[in-house]
Amino acid sequence: MKDASPAAAPLEIFLSDYTPPAYLVDTVELVFKLHPTATRVLSKIAFRPNPEATDRTFYLHGEQLKLISATIDGKDANAKITDLGLTAQAPDAPFVFEAEVEISPQTNTALEGLYMSNGMYCTQCEAEGFRKITYYPDRPDVMGVFTVTIEGSEPVKLSNGNDLGGGKWHDPWPKPAYLFALVAGDLVNHPDTFNTMSGKQVELNIWVRKGDLNKCAFGMDALKRSMKWDEEVYGREYDLDLFNIVAVDDFNMGAMENKGLNIFNSSAVLASPETSTDANFERIEAIIAHEYFHNWTGNRITCRDWFQLCLKEGLTVYRDSQFTADERSPAVKRIEDVIALRARQFREDNGPLAHPVRPESFVEINNFYTATVYEKGAEVIGMLKTLIGDEAYYKGCDLYFTRHDGQACTIEDWLACFEEVTGRDLTQFKLWYSQAGTPRVAVKEAWSEGTYTLTFTQDTPPTPGQDVKDPKVIPIAVGLLNDAGEEVHATRICEMTDVVHAFRFTGLDAKPVPSINRGFSAPIILEQDQDNATRAFLLAHDTDPFNKWEAGRALARDVMIRMVTEDATPDQAYLDALLAVARDDTLDPAFKALAFSTPSADDIAQALFDGGVTPDPTKIYNTTQTLRQSVAHAMQDTLPRIYAEMQVDGPFSPDAEAAGKRAWGNVALSLLTRLDGGAQARTQFESADNMTQQLSALGALLRAEVGEEASNAFCEQWKDDRLVIDKWFAMQVSYAKLDAAPATAKALTNHPDFDMTNPNRFRAVFGALAGNTAGFHSPDGSGYALLADWLIKLDAKNPQTAARMSTAFETWKRYDADRQAMMREALERMKAASNLSGDLLEMVTRILNA
Ligand code: BES
Ligand code: ZN
């Protein structure tokens, strides 16, 4: 967070203004004398002039620090202090800077820098949190070797690197300050070891509060599988003798990849069958992998500046999605990723917050840890791999790892490695990093005497600051089927490079049915004239599992849109297609569950808006209900059998197969609940021995408005488990009927267990409100007003989380004049609030300026 005082003009930083640091750091020695409100931090930093620098200004970042003393080579530094940092006269030769500052972890509710969570000290330094610990060149292109001493009565004291004993730590790998970490508290560990590919033994630990020791085994197993996978797939070995993970209850994000000391939101690491759902297990496995993979993509090779964030995040998300695909089901993972991409990134790309994967300017970097940088950033890596092929991809990665080890790099450095191994010019490809907006690709087909031609036309709509777009290179995977559903042309990558680009397929007996953008090979919006019969045909026959699902999704979207705009009844062709999916014994149950999920209310709202129709959230809600009711009726004879067949016997296992059966069984349960008044769901709720079954049953009951009793029992049963109670808070709001969500959320803020300083709890209530489309957009505007009230309150304590949650308003221009006026009012009210942080101010300003 920047200086929060209203007088300070927000400072916009530009990629084009990058200059190398004036001084580099060799070594850093830190001593922490821990105290809740008066921690002393002593620093001794060896600086030397950077030969590549153009100026010699000695400037150190520092915010909310009380300076006790500062010296240069033992003499008073005569430092000039501002709200943002320190300047001093420094020699044009190597020198030692020493300082002592005082900070107050206990009162640090922003959860950035050194703070306290449940009596435990911990840090979060990415992106610019180290400057709240001491004066330092807090930029990722300054890398130093850290030695840390922690003084305090806490039984466990941890920092990066190797344990020298007595609270002293040494990290041999030079690192930027954002990877620094410190933890101290009354913790216990779940230990294990891992033998690396070169035969070194690494000590592994997951550190938790005493009561959580029974929730560590799964995370540890996921860590070891991640370590093995990175050796096997990318040839990357771990590089310290010790790897520590710590679970923290109060944490803004999911987790953080600090060198040798990853810090996790407890929700992103603690798992047990009784308290975690299958979705939780999958997420925990992915986050552990993600943070571990950063050791190479992020830590050994880091970012030159924060504009290059996708260099580590997009790549690491790509790597963790490869891992999940390998460990579980590639088809299911791809479908899940595309659902999330559309829900978060397409939404962002199509609104006021649209920005390139590599932004060109920012005010607050914390606001750029976005779906675009992460998810679209990962898609860009996937496209690169598709375009150059697997072999060249891994060769390029190897070159990147060897050439840039120990450096702070740019996207140019990354791409140069692939240009070098392939001899290919990636200039046009680079537009994916610099141009915002989701390309729309229109498809036309032609058939003549054995030749089938697909003509694609690309168009990327204007985004803030970018009116005109150049054509991008788009890898579109295409396969062709005949009328019998047999593949007559295997998948081919059509490399689109122009605005209009035609691709011919020859030697065909009859006009084929195309399957376009297989595997979602490019993150585009495909505009093709496809009738519902063709969609149903592809849902039944496409050999590409992603497009098989996609056809069903397009069908569902079309059915819902016609229900909303034409008051149509649910299309029989859709119901028949679903029935066929349900009966197809060759399909993976997890796939069936995904094929039955209907597009979200937000998806439908977006699709309506794109088609020139103002979405009515109430109508979308009612349509979804009607459609699901129709599906339940159409399936009524089959549901009990599906439900029975999908029961998993024996001890709980979170593996993909068992999870898939539970998912499909619970789809059947939720449909059954619409027919049986909740009898089956109540039985499942009462007999469940794992959270997936218990929570699914509760959700089905709440959706059918017969869940109050179960909900109370659930709350009583789990009152001592914070992570489960988060679920309970979220369920009330997510499953509140139509426009009851704002009142429900408001009532929950008065619940004794509501705690706005815990980001998980705040998100449980208000994330659920924002995600309940009909509820958030209640016609009386109470959803908007409530969220604005609470974001203003939260902003005073935790600007980063408040700013992130303001994206609930990013779609305001889609809606009718009344709703737009009320959302504008809410945004203006936040903007005018006194002492608003720079974080939230930047967000509401950008949203309003659409
Ligand atoms: N480096 C980030 C954590 C982070 C994000 C720190 C924003 C500071 C500001 C970490 O690697 C990360 O990306 N975590 C994700 C989870 C991941 C699986 C995408 C998160 O925390 O949500
Ligand atoms: Zn990350």
From TrEMBL:
Gene3D superfamilies: 2.60.40.1840, 3.30.2010.30, Neutral Protease Domain 2, Peptidase M1, alanyl aminopeptidase, C-terminal domain, tricorn interacting facor f3 domain. It is an enzyme of class 3 (hydrolase). GO terms for biological process: proteolysis. The keyword Hydrolase applies. Keywords: Aminopeptidase, Hydrolase, Metal-binding, Metalloprotease, Protease, Zinc. It comes from the Bacteria. One of its GO terms (molecular function) is alanyl aminopeptidase activity. Pfam families: DUF3458, DUF3458_C, Peptidase_M1, Peptidase_M1_N. Residues 534-849 form the Peptidase M1 alanyl aminopeptidase C-terminal domain. It catalyses: Release of an N-terminal amino acid, Xaa-|-Yaa- from a peptide, amide or arylamide. Xaa is preferably Ala, but may be most amino acids including Pro (slow action). When a terminal hydrophobic residue is followed by a prolyl residue, the two may be released as an intact Xaa-Pro dipeptide. Residues 54-163 form the Aminopeptidase N-like N-terminal domain. Its cofactor is Zn(2+). Residues 437-529 form the Peptidase M1 alanyl aminopeptidase Ig-like fold domain. Residues 218-429 form the Peptidase M1 membrane alanine aminopeptidase domain. Its EC number is 3.4.11.2. InterPro entries: Aminopeptidase_N-like_N (IPR045357), Aminopeptidase_N-like_N_sf (IPR042097), PepN_Ig-like_sf (IPR038438), Peptidase_M1 (IPR001930), Peptidase_M1_dom (IPR014782), Peptidase_M1_pepN (IPR012779), Peptidase_M1_pepN_C (IPR024601), Peptidase_M1_pepN_C_sf (IPR037144). Belongs to the peptidase M1 family. This is Aminopeptidase N.
